Amino acid sequence: xxxxxxxxxxxxxxxxxxxxxxxxxxxxxxxxxxxxxxxxxxxxxxxxxxxxxxxxxxxxxxxxxxxxxxxxxxxxxxxxxxxxxxxxxxxxxxxxxxxxxxxxxxxxxxxxxxxxxxxxxxxxxxxxxxxxxxxxxxxxxxxxxxxxxxxxxxxxxxxxxxxxxxxxxxxxxxxxxxxxxxxxxxxxxxxxxxxxxxxxxxxxxxxxxxxxxxxxxxxxxxxxxxxxxxxxxxxxxxxxxxxxxxxxxxxxxxxxxxxxxxxx
Length: 264
Description:
With 264 residues, this protein is an alpha/beta fold. It has eleven helices and nine strands. β1 (7-12) and β2 (15-20) form a beta hairpin.
């Protein structure tokens, strides 16, 4: 596996752990980060069914301060090119992560800003330390959002709440983020790592293909007619009914025991 400078990627027993690893710089997202994150996401996508769950976490005081603004201030005339260069590697990686069957879990400590919030908003489960804070101050730079924020924040918070969050460049504490739908669970700071591991362990032992279909069905639900969702559900369920995990789930239910899923 490739050695990275800004992240760490470990895969063990079907669990992928992707760690932001530039704590001295607040885990700021620069060109190297965009390229490496995209590469890591592509690698996980190639592994496909071998990956049963993904955990995103970080090292240091901050989860991530967001984009490295110095990328733009070094040469203001090159700012448009810098945006397109960074998103050309990061955006496809994020799309491939979302297309995987494996559930995506994020564990957040410290402060998450801008692009970090955008990425988190597209994860399935976001666990926050009680002291964490979340913000997306794009307008203060004269910017709009990137890294999937428009889809993720609208899906999580609703369009009107996401609009307020972005336009007013709000900072939300963990409890406010929970109330707004940006995060799914708040735990004491010293419980964050353990709780995240509990979740990826639970999900990693689950019916991975069923998780993938659930995620895809929900992702399409609000962008198509009701009748199309009904047909998508029927087709997905019929496909899953023939899988090894469905057979195991039904058999275990009949035998009154816990199922042993293999993600197949």
